[in-house]
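One thing: mind reviewing this one?
=====
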Amino acid sequence: MKGLLNLSYRAEKANAKGIALEEKGWHAEAEAAYRKAASLDPSWSVPWFNLGLLAKRQRRWTDSLSFNRHATERNTADEGAWWNLGIAATALGDWATARAAWLGFGLEIPVGEGPLDLDLGFVPIRLAANNEVVWCNRIDPARAIVRSVPLPESERAFGDLLLHDGATNGWRWLHGREVGVFDELQLLGESPHRTFACKARVSSPGDVEALAELAHEAGLAAEDWSTVEFLCEECSRGTPHKHHLHEAPEWRPDRHIGVAAPDRADLDRLLAQWQERAAVSITEVELVFGPEAEPA
């Protein structure tokens, strides 16, 4: 018994060392410490969970799947390991394992095979490249489709399929209630849409709303980038307007608008319809993100 207690103590010490090393950014050394902890106490799930979490942060999906599977085998009540197992399996397209992981976590998943196609609502996701928060349709516990028109520096487009983390990191308002912001982990599928930047002079905010409606009817998207607000770090990862007051800028007729369309012909048809409906003057159109776009 004394020997077992000593092994358990040494395992806890090695695991704690791994955490400290990872916090310093010494990932290889942290992984070695976690592996040592796992070998010292083979029945303990925590070092395996930490290995899986480290591998997830490094986007080592095959390793993350294996480590989290070891964790769930040792502790079937480890919700974090089940969730990270689901994320890793989703990244790898291992749908049988992903479904089993979501069931293991306790979610109600429809019977079937292959990827899930659910309606889990409208959620905000923070993009990895520029920390821009965009709105997306969540189609399963770890995947969502972008429904905003992201800025070109985000390296993302309307219609992109994203892998996102499970923990929320900040909040945004939707229909009078707070919804959690998820962090993007990886691009899973590229959209056929390109992103165009249009400069236009309009007579009222209703003109911009008309463009958005026309775009939606055509299966495209338009967003007034003139209204994009760059929040401080505290507000971006918390709830905007809770810590600082961000006053809305004075409305101006010259607008900078992002439009998502498969090609220039689709965009031109949309803009022609817009000019028929509203008294607008389009002064500039530029492809800003897509295969043919000029590098930023």
Summary: The chain has a mean pLDDT of 91.
